[in-house]
Amino acid sequence: MQIAIVIVLLAWAFGSGLLTQRLLDVAQDGYLTVSEPHFTPDTTLVLLGGGTDREDSGLVPKQDSMARIAATARLYGQCKQTGATCKVIVSGGDPQRHGQAEADNYAPYLIAQGVAPGDLTRENRSLNTYQNARNVAAIVGHSHDNGLIVVTSAYHMRRALDAFAAFGYSPQYYVSDVRQSTLTVFPRFRSFENGELAAHELIGVARFHVWRWLHWY
User: What is the DSSP letter of 99?
Assistant: First the structure.
């Protein structure tokens, strides 16, 4: 009986947003504000994939991925205005097995929002954040470090920067969106979704450092 009560209370804490917001605060700590990056004469923006959804119209980027796409296109436009050489790498394979890589799915959206096709590179083989960093590093080389700007969601940024650090990079970063969980009396699906997302990221960061300690990464 006591175990059942604890389970119900935990479920309510997640569904109401009470515990979910605490997890989001930890996952997004340090990345809640958006700071404008510095564009170098040779700048590369790296958009990290965040999944796709099936809709009646076909396969489309997830909501957070749309925010990343919009942020990348906006930064690209700002970069071009400075007269710099500006490139975009969109990184993401098909970890969900939807039949199309994230990079290939996102590319038309980036082009529609002003990214020149000749400035766009698709890295469409990576299946996780570590592979994102590894494959992007193989494309740009270490001489590009100072002009590298990583674009992703606040909850994903810590794991992304850790992955790039594993390959000797200290890129600038740009937060495309921040997750918030509304406090409610009755449980909401969105709160459960946010809680699962935050837990996934925190476990991912912990696993990354354990694997680094074991020299698996």
Answer: S
Q: How many CB atoms lie within 10 A of CB 37?
A: 20
With 0-12 / 13-18 / 19 or more C-beta atoms within 10 angstroms meaning exposed / middle / buried, residue 145 is middle
* Residue 74 identity (one-letter amino acid): R
Higher pLDDT, 27 or 88: 88
Crossing angle of helices 154-165 and 18-28, rounded to 10°: 30
- The H-assigned helical ranges of the chain are 2-15, 18-28, 63-81, 102-112, 129-140, 154-165, 189-213
Buried/exposed 147-173: b ≥16 CB within 10 Å, e otherwise = bbbbbbbbbbbbbbbbbbebeebebbb
Q: pLDDT tens digits, residue range 28-72? A: 999 988 778 899 999 999 999 999 999 988 999 999 999 999 999
Over the chain, what is the mean pLDDT? 88
Sorted by where each starts, the structural domains of the chain and their CATH numbers stand as 19-213 (3.40.50.620)
Please report which helix (H) or strand (E) contains residue 42, including its range.
strand 42-48
Handedness of CA 132, 95, 181, 1 (dihedral sign): negative
Neighbours of 121 (CB within 10 A): 18
